[in-house]
């Protein structure tokens, strides 16, 4: 289903990557913008490092503290990330200067 897909923008609202049959999905190399909203799945956050060209991440309301904690640990490792938008998300303190500059 995803083979040969050159996806640049993806929005996940109330869903996750749990239903994507491939790990990582074929579009992982081309995805540049990702929006995650109302997701309580760790797979949405754990998949982030696989998106090598991800430049923009928008996150809106993560209802799970475990997911927010995982996002806090993952963000500093996203080297290609240039834009970060967080709404109604409680993160652990962002110690990295780079992350504070994005946020």
- The percent of residues in helical segments reads 10-25%
The 3D shape can be described as: globular
Strand arrangement in the largest pleated sheet: 1-2-3-4
Low-confidence regions: none
SSE layout and pairings?
Blueprint: E1 9-13, E2 33-37, H1 42-46, E3 56-60, H2 65-74, E4 83-87, H3 97-102
Parallel strand pairs: 1-2, 2-3, 3-4
Please tell me about this protein's structure.
- The chain is an alpha/beta fold and 103 residues long.
- It has one domain.
- The chain is 20% helix and 19% strand.
- The chain has helices at residues 42-46, 65-74, 97-102; strands spanning 9-13, 33-37, 56-60, 83-87.
- A four-stranded parallel β-sheet has the order 1-2-3-4, with no helix packed on it.
- InterPro entries: LRR_dom_sf.
From the structure above, extract its key features:
alpha/beta; 3 helices; globular; 103 residues
Brief overview, please?
The protein has 103 residues and is α/β, with parallel strands linked by helices. The protein has helices spanning 42-46, 65-74, 97-102; strands at 9-13, 33-37, 56-60, 83-87. The chain has one domain (9-102).
């Amino acid at each position: 289903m995803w083979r040969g897909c050159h996806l640049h923008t993806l929005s996940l609202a109330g869903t996750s990557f749990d239903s994507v049959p491939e790990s990582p999905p074929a579009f992982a190399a081309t995805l540049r913008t990702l929006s995650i909203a109302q997701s309580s799945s760790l797979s949405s956050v754990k998949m982030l490092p696989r998106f090598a060209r991800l430049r923009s991440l928008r996150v809106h309301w993560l209802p799970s503290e475990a997911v927010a904690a995982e996002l806090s640990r993952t963000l500093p490792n996203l080297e290609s990330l240039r834009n970060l938008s967080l709404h109604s998300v409680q993160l652990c303190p962002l110690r990295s200067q780079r992350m504070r500059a994005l946020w």
